[in-house]
Amino acid sequence: MSRPDRLVVVTGTGTEVGKTWWTAAVARSLRAVGHRVEVRKPVQSFAPGDDAAGLTDAQVLAAVTDADPETVCPLHRWLATPMAPPMAAAALGLAPFTVADLAAEITWPPGTDLGLVEGAGGLRSPLAADGDTRDLVAALAPDAVLVVADVGLGVIHQVRVVADALAAVGIDPTRMVVAANRFDPGDPLHRANVAWLREHDGRSVVTDPGELATAWT
C-alpha cells in the first residue's frame, strides 16, 4: 500500500478536546473540492453501546469518508471499555499490543491525497502497551501533526507542553499546526490566546477547518 501524498497525525492536548470533530471536518472540506481523503483510527476505546448507536470515532470518520468503519479501525482494535486503549485491552482480557503493531495495520489505497491518522486521548495518553501517540508519530514520520486544543484558559501551557514533546521526536514547529477548538471570535480570552500563540510563540494556529483545507490543497 502506498503512502498518501500528505500524511497527518491528529492528536490533542487532552481527552475530549475535539479531535474527531476536526478530523472529520478537515476530511469533509477536502473531499468537497475533489480530493481523495482517507482516515484511520489505529485503535479506539469507547463505552459499551456506542457502536450500536453509531457513535464510535471510527463510525463517525467512516461516514464522512464513505468508508467501512472496520477499514478506518480494524475490528479487533474496537475496545468496548472507556479507558486508555492498553488499559481497556487488559480489562477485556485481550493480548497486549504495541505501537509497532498499530503502525503496521495502517494501510492506504493508491492515489490517496491526504491520509489522516487520529490518535486516542492526548499526545502522551497511553495508546499501546509500550507507547503513546507521540511514539506513533515517531513511527509514522508524518508530514504534519495537527494538535487540537480547547482554546480556553490554560491552552498556552498545554500547547507548549505538547510542542516540547513533539520536538523530542523530530517534529519542528513548521510541521505542527494547532487547531483552536470551539473558538469564539467574540470571546476576548479566545482572541488573546490565539494571538499569543501566533505572535509570541510563533505557532501556526487555525480556528476553522476550512483554513486547513485551503492550506493543504
- What's the rounded overall pLDDT mean? 95
Largest sheet: 6 strands, parallel
List segments where confidence is low: pLDDT < 50 over at least 5 consecutive residues. none
The helix count comes to 10
| Approximate shape | globular
Helix content: 25-40%
Which percent range describes the beta-strand content?
A: 15-25%
The H/E string reads: EHEEHHHEHHEEEHEHEHEH
Annotation, overall tally of beta strands: 10
Structural class: alpha/beta
Describe the overall structure.
With 217 residues, the protein is α/β, with parallel strands linked by helices. The protein has helices spanning 19-32, 50-53, 57-65, 69-72, 85-91, 99-104, 133-140, 155-167, 188-199, 209-215; strands spanning 6-12, 37-40, 44-45, 78-79, 114-118, 126-128, 131-132, 144-150, 176-181, 204-206. The strands form 3 sheets. It has a 6-stranded parallel β-sheet with strand order 2-5-1-8-9-10, sandwiched between helices. A two-stranded parallel sheet has the order 3-4. Strands 6-7 form a two-stranded antiparallel ribbon. Helix 1 packs parallel to helix 3 and helix 1 (19-32) packs across helix 10 (209-215). The model has no long low-confidence stretch (mean pLDDT 95).
Name some characteristics of this structure.
single chain, 217 residues, alpha/beta, 19% strand, globular
Question: Mind sketching the topology for me?
Answer:
Elements lengths: L5 E7 L6 H14 L4 E4 L3 E2 L4 H4 L3 H9 L3 H4 L5 E2 L5 H7 L7 H6 L9 E5 L7 E3 L2 E2 H8 L3 E7 L4 H13 L8 E6 L6 H12 L4 E3 L2 H7 L2
